[in-house]
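Appendix B. Chain record.
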Amino acid sequence: MPYEKILIRIKDHDILINNGIDDPVIFNRMLPMGYSWEEMNHAKGLLEEAKDANRLNHSEQSEYHQAVDRRREAKDIFHEEYISDLELARIAFRDDQNVLNKIDASGTRERGIAEYLGQAENFYKSLAEDPSLLEKMAVFGYTTEIINERLASIGNIWGLMRQIEREEGDSQHQVNIRDEKLDELDDWASIYKRVARVVFKDEPQYLEKLGIIVRS
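Structure tokens predicted for this chain:
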């Protein structure tokens, strides 16, 4: 459910419960129906729990999206370097297709992020592990340090992907908690509204104070 609709849902419950407590006419008329101070404060507790759960969920969602943005930014920065390195490798090994195949420098890059990183990792590790290949790349200024920097960038992107998975799991867990709290609040409010409609069936102004729609 969209965040804005959740906020409206909570606001409606807030009006119902707090006006049910604060308006003396409503409170005193609902009191014999079982809605004592204790019961109304119980409802207020449910409301606060739902609000807290929603705030935590919103926070978890923000952290998830921030992690996605960081991964995207890191991948974009890395991609520019990677593509330049690939082009230079294709020049350096232009007469040896077997080498180009071995170091994953042939063809297009994979669209899936995991597959893409696998290609990149194989490319740089192949260069790092074979001095003869790195020697040919050295013509373009490549050193072991540069290769290690690229591999570190790949490792960072993998780490950000793992963080995204953790944040997504935390966010879904908090969604479940929020929904449980809201469902519990909905159940309480549903009964309260039904009783209020009976108590104030001839006095719609009090129902309107509770946020209950009255059809004319």
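Further analysis of this model is presented in Appendix C.
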